[in-house]
Amino acid sequence: MTCERSKSDPQVLKRAETVRADIEREAQTKRNAIEAIFAKEPAKKATPPSREAAKDKAPGS
Fold first, then answer.
1. Which residues of 17-40 are buried (b: 16+ CB within 10 A; e: fewer)?
2. 3-state SS, one letter per residue, for 19-36
3. What's the pLDDT tens digit per position in 22-61?
4. How far apart are CA 26 and CA 43, in angstroms?
5. What is the 8-class DSSP label of residue 60?
6. How confident is the model over 1-14, as pLDDT tens digits?
7. Alpha-carbon distance 26 to 18, whole Å?
8. Residue 5's pLDDT is what?
9. H/E element holding 12?
């Protein structure tokens, strides 16, 4: 099969698109990881209030 025929072969085109999508997914994963490392503000985790804070908010206190 010549190069020109390969470029128009539906199976080759489908495989090329699959490979391209895999490469893009991997690249996005790496970009996300780098962004997470260098983010200016770390993601805030939800933490339960301390026992002291809970006592201050209790009704009738």
1. eeeeeeeeeeeeeeeeeeeeeeee
2. HHHHHHHHHHHHHHHHHH
3. 999 999 999 999 999 998 765 556 666 666 665 555 555 4
4. 23
5. T
6. 567 778 889 999 99
7. 12
8. 74
9. helix 10-38
Distance CA 23, CA 15 (A): 12
CB 41 within 8 A of CB 33: no
Check if the beta carbon of residue 61 is closer than 8 Å to that of residue 55.
yes
Q: What is the pLDDT of residue 42?
A: 57
Run of H or E including 13: helix 10-38
Taking the C-alpha atoms of residue 45 and residue 14, their distance in angstroms, rounded to an integer, is 43
